[in-house]
Specification:
Elements (H helix, E strand, L loop, with lengths): L5 E5 L2 H12 L6 E3 L4 E3 L4 E3 L2 H8 L4 E2 L4 H8 L6 E5 L7 H5 L5 E5 L7 E2 L2 H8 L3 E8 L9 E8 L6 H20 L16 E2 L15 H11 L5 E5 L2 E11 L10 E5 L2 E5 L4 E9 L6 E3 H7 L17
Parallel strand pairs: 1-2, 1-6, 2-5, 6-7, 8-11
Antiparallel strand pairs: 3-4, 7-9, 9-10, 12-13, 13-16, 14-15, 15-16, 16-17
Helix pairs in contact: 1-2, 1-6, 5-7
Length: 316
């Protein structure tokens, strides 16, 4: 069976990884749509999205429509069988969805209908879910409400992070997409069933360390957000990003956020229930490099001493 003529629409690293999987599987889009170049990095230079960079390197034509009208203009007349969408960033109009012969299909990073919305990977981790997965769905005009073509589960382990799950789901989803594209006319989407949950967009409030909550919850938030929006707190007037930690079940004799151990055995702060062993962090003083607990104690002993207390850092 000949390959379908399809376009790919995506923007961040997750989408670029999925596109890489498609290319490795022998499926090459005739066109890529991605978000406009954005200012990034310390120099605030206009840089292409990861998807645009990959497509350019692969010799695939790229368009960066600013809105739905431009996106529709780009794909109409292309005689497309479908558009594969992965974290594109635009809510697609009905006119766009109807332009390809077989409509548009989407790679969503959860087992729909659980975690519809913008941040399914992080919300699954923060909620303590035992598994997540990849869903290929036919896109309709709702928010991740379209019928499901195929799904595959992925376990969430005790060491899973937002970054590791993102990579694993993108790879899993690329394989599913290759299967769908290999026989596109045969796809038989089924309506979603079961209770739906909504993965609201991440906000600065999600990254504020709440030391009054159980250590297990704070540790899950750290694992979920370290790669995108690191959990942070304030210690002695210094902003501290918490990048890796371990929840300790034993009770700690201290106020929430109070450092109860700062030694070669580790850096431990009390929580509402249990305690958090801090393994990696970054300060907004010094060189701003990632530090292990021992490096932090040795280099910034004035901050990381027993009895000092982490406090909530305002997002305002």
């Amino acid at each position: 069976m000949p390959q379908p003529r399809f376009a790919f629409a995506g923007t961040p690293e997750f989408a670029a990884r999925a596109l890489t999987g498609l290319l490795q599987g022998g499926f090459r889009p005739c066109l890529v749509l991605t978000g406009p170049d954005q200012r990034r990095g310390r120099g605030r230079k206009h840089l292409p999205s990861p998807v645009k960079q990959l497509a350019t390197e692969s010799g695939i034509p790229v368009e960066t429509p600013a809105d739905n009208d431009e996106a529709v203009f780009v794909i109409e007349g292309q005689r497309l069988d479908t558009v594969v969408v992965a974290a594109y960033g635009l809510i697609l109009s009905e006119r766009f969805l109807k332009a390809p012969r077989h409509g548009c299909i989407n790679l969503h990073a959860s087992l729909l209908p659980r975690w519809r919305g913008a941040a399914p990977i992080e919300r699954a981790l923060m909620a303590g879910d035992a598994q997540t997965g990849a869903t290929i769905m036919q896109i309709d005009t709702g928010l991740d409400t379209g019928p499901i073509i195929v799904q595959a589960p992925l376990p969430i382990g005790p060491d899973s992070t937002g970054e590791s799950l993102s990579d694993a789901i993108a790879d899993l989803g690329a394989g599913l997409l290759c299967g769908v594209l290999s026989d596109l006319p045969a796809m038989r989407p089924e309506p979603q069933s079961g209770p739906a949950t909504y993965a609201r967009k991440l906000s600065p409030d999600d990254a504020v360390a709440d030391w009054a909550q159980p250590a297990t919850q704070l540790e899950r938030s750290i694992r979920a957000l370290a790669h995108r929006l690191p959990v942070h707190s304030e210690l002695g007037g210094t902003r501290v990003q918490l990048l890796a930690g371990e929840a300790l079940s034993e009770s700690a004799q201290g106020r929430p956020g109070e450092i109860v151990m700062a030694s070669r055995q580790g850096l431990v702060a009390a929580c509402g229930t249990g305690a958090l062993k801090i393994k990696q962090l970054r300060l907004d003083r010094g060189k701003g490099t990632i530090l292990g607990a021992a490096e932090a104690i040795n280099g910034f002993g004035d901050l990381f001493r027993t009895g000092n207390q982490f406090k909530r850092l305002s997002t305002g």
